[in-house]
Write a structure and sequence with these properties.
By secondary structure, the chain is an alpha+beta fold.
């Protein structure tokens, strides 16, 4: 099933799930994986999208599908739709660069489930009803992409309300993310052993506790990186990284760019 208009398109199908040709689209493309792990290839390396996670390709990102689990479900959103959503939300006009990070967020997951269920029940609806549904869905998705999609527009790693035992650890990490946390210290904060914590944290967020902390540090560092002239080594150490090398390494993993390149592209203009 394909629905499309000037703001984007929605695609849902269960056939032709094998390897596809290389693509390079002038829009944002958000891929959902509702059943299992999907895999895409990029010139910078393969990307795995685990069950109930999503991934956002930026405009002009070269990619091709290697595998989709049971179903392919994606939505393309034109940059103009994100601009409109930003204006409606009272944000500055933005054209974000989303990270190369397969991510999980309950609000996005709930939206995805609702849209898929609606399509399953209304595949034979009139074209006008489907177009109205697509218009509203694209508007909602554009707003959620800006709120919950990790990217250059964020000054903090997108988070959500979690189980109490995980929430207390998240709050502690947010309040003192610059400190040199160990897994034992995190587990003591949660009042559980470190193996239980690691399992629950991964189950809730899709990331290990330490990986989540590193991502939080990176996204907190984006504001001074883009809107001040502070040296990158100072920014990295101030935000809890042990060295500028580890900061650079994570930045290249998340954005396929060094902090210097990221600053040059997205930073304040003279």
């Amino acid at each position: 099933m394909i629905l499309e208009n000037e703001n984007g398109l929605l695609l849902k199908r269960r056939e032709q799930l094998g390897e596809r040709d290389w693509r390079n689209d002038p829009c944002y493309k958000i891929i959902f994986s509702p059943y299992g792990t999907s895999q895409y290839q990029t010139p910078q390396g393969d990307i795995q999208i685990h069950q109930n996670e999503f991934f956002i390709f930026n405009p002009a990102n070269d990619h091709r599908q290697l595998q989709a689990a049971t179903e392919k479900f994606l939505i393309e959103v034109q940059p103009a739709a994100l601009h409109t959503a930003a204006e409606q939300m009272g944000l500055e006009k933005v054209e974000p660069e989303f990270s190369f990070l397969s991510f999980r967020h309950p609000q996005i997951q709930q939206w995805m489930s609702f849209v898929r269920d609606f399509l399953s029940l209304h595949e034979t609806s009139s074209p006008s009803i489907n177009q109205l549904f697509l218009d509203n869905s694209l508007t909602q998705l554009a707003m959620m992409m800006l709120q919950y999609g990790p990217g250059s527009h964020q000054t903090e790693f997108p988070t959500f309300k979690s189980k109490d035992s995980i929430e207390v650890v998240m709050d502690a990490l947010k309040q003192s993310y610059e400190e040199d946390w160990t897994l034992d210290q995190m587990a003591a904060t949660a009042r559980m052993n470190k193996y239980q914590l690691a399992h629950l944290y991964k189950e809730e967020t899709g990331l290990s506790p330490y990986s989540w902390l590193q991502m939080y540090r990176l996204f907190r560092s984006q504001y001074p990186l883009l809107y001040t002239q502070r040296p990158i080594i100072s920014i990295s150490l101030h935000h809890g990284f042990k060295s500028v090398a580890s900061y650079n390494h994570l930045f290249k993993k998340v954005y396929r760019k060094t902090p210097s390149e990221f600053r040059r592209i997205h930073g304040m203009k003279n």
